[in-house]
Structures are given as structure tokens and as C-alpha cells.
Amino acid sequence: MSCEYFADKGMKIDGNYWLVHPQTGVAWNSTSIEDYKKAYEAQQILLAQERLESEKADQLATIKEAVFNKLNDEQWRVQKAQEHLLMAELAGDQAEIGLSKAHLAELLSQREQLRLASDKAEQTLADISTSEELEEFTFDVNISL
Known about the structure:
mainly alpha; 3-stranded antiparallel sheet; 70% helix; rod-shaped
């Protein structure tokens, strides 16, 4: 996207030449050229900011969906650990109860680590202010769960 003036062709706006101002129909003069260029540049900055915010929102949705899916996919492990704990409690096996509680606590800790990593990634994403930073940003949901 560009905007530049040529004396013989008029104002080139995004690849199209305009001999007159596209909104007023009046021939270009030095004032209208400068005013249009300033307005065009401001519009391009605004569009870039909107594009960045949209891409950040898309990335945020991707993170949330990935974490949700990962936690849902691994829920069976928690359920299994809870069942083992219940069986140990019903059998009265203190050693097995201790092991089952430790295993369940480990699984819950891993899930919490994923949530914390997600929170950190979301905060990092919120702090991003340029497209270059967004391109460098990555989040991997497969952290040791």
C-alpha cells in the first residue's frame, strides 16, 4: 500500500492513479497532496494496528482452545487416579492410598502448570505491540502433561 504524487500522472493511491482528489473531484495542489498523504498514512497506521489486534485475538483464541483441548484430552488420567485412590481407600491399603494421593497430586500439579503457562502466554501476547513481536511469539501446549 502506497501513496505518492507524480506531476504527470497524478496521485498514485494503492496502485491507481488519480488526476483529481478521489473524494472531492478537485485537481491536486500542494495543500491537498500533503493533506491526503497525511490522512493516508494515518489510515495505514490505524489499519496496521487493527490487523495486529485481530491477529492477537486469533492467537489468544488458539491458545485457549489448545489448552482446553489438552486438559479435556488428559482428564481421563485424573479420573483414573481418582478411581485408584478410591479403590485403595475402600481396601484400606494405607501404602496404596499414599501412592495414589501422590500420583493424583502430581497430575493436578501438571494441569496447573499448563494453566499457568497459558496465563503467562496470554499476558505476553497482551504485551505485544508490533507484528514482528507477534511473529516471534510461540506457545506449545505440549509441556510435559
